[in-house]
Design goal:
Shape: globular
Strand content: 15-25%
Oligomer: single chain
Largest sheet: 3 strands, antiparallel
Order of helices and strands: EHEHE
Helix content: 25-40%
Distance between the termini: 12 Å
Number of helices: 2
Strand order of the largest sheet: 2-1-3
Number of strands: 3
């Protein structure tokens, strides 16, 4: 169970931002924003989809991925 008391769905991915996106190209900054990151060290949980996989591949040098 998560903090909110809801069960996690199968096929989710937890992603943590481990490096800053300050000196990255505009498209990578937009990808980080699209993933839902707000600050360094932030964690987001998203459904595992092909589009998410593509976004993570683009910024794989900035994030750490954990499959739940």
């Amino acid at each position: 169970m998560t903090e909110t008391g809801k069960k996690k769905k199968d096929g989710t991915v937890t992603v943590r931002l481990v490096k800053s996106g300050i000196c990255t190209p505009k498209d990578q900054k937009a990808t980080l924003k699209g993933l839902g990151f707000r600050r360094l060290g932030g964690t987001v949980t998203r459904d595992d989809t092909p589009s998410l996989r593509g976004m993570l591949r683009k910024v794989r040098h900035l994030v750490e991925v954990t499959k739940d």
